[in-house]
Amino acid sequence: MRSEIKRWGNSAAVRLPRKLLNQTGLDVDSAVSMNVEENRIVIEALEETAPKRLRLPYSEAELVAGMDADTAHADELPEPLLEEEMGDW
After folding, report:
1. Which site in 19, 29, 42, 60 is 20 to 30 Å from 82, CA atoms measured?
2. What domains can be seen in the chain, in order of their start residue?
């Protein structure tokens, strides 16, 4: 399969036809490594690793349980300031 190297900004690029990508199992945004071996450019797929999930001690639902528009963040305010902020209802 013939292709050409073209300018892409300050770099160079080669278009990879869909047929070639399908044969390798690669797709747009696939992670690859590129190396030079015996004067050839070798492109290889990198093993995809799942992003690490952050495990927090509480779920969002647990954190906001019992909160409403009047009580959200009110516990963070000191008592004198709380009275000023909340006012007389």
Report:
1. 60
2. 5-45 (2.10.260.10)
